[in-house]
Design goal:
Elements (H helix, E strand, L loop, with lengths): L3 H10 L4 E2 H8 L3 H13 L3 E6 L2 E6 L2 H16 L20 H4 L6
């Protein structure tokens, strides 16, 4: 959880379930890199996934993970290693195949 990209992914997922395409866009990282970090988090049982067609969605495996993220963030601040946490886009991501983007399911 101390890895910056994994911590950012967990922080994003603490707010809502996201598809890989959203995480890739938010983190400005290649899909392969984000998928590798998600695999590590899944193996550690911190996230779970579900497939909807070709799109894979991730969410936190347990609400306690969100509490652990908060504590980890506080520790990083206290030791001078604070990270900026990007937010999930609030509008459709161009070219994203997920139902949320392609079917206009964004909440206002």
């Amino acid at each position: 959880m101390a890895h910056p990209a994994r911590l950012q992914i967990l922080e994003i997922l603490a707010h809502e379930e996201c598809c890989v395409c959203h995480l890739t866009t938010v983190l400005r990282k290649r899909q392969a890199y984000v998928s590798q970090q998600l695999m590590i988090l899944r193996d550690a049982k911190l996230v779970v996934d579900r497939r909807e067609g070709v799109v894979v969605y991730y969410r936190l495996a347990d609400p306690l993970v969100a509490e652990a993220i908060t504590l980890t963030r506080q520790l990083r601040v206290a030791t001078g290693r604070e990270l900026e946490f990007p937010s999930v886009p609030e509008s459709p991501v161009d070219g994203c195949p997920c139902a949320k983007c392609s079917d206009g399911l964004w909440s206002s």
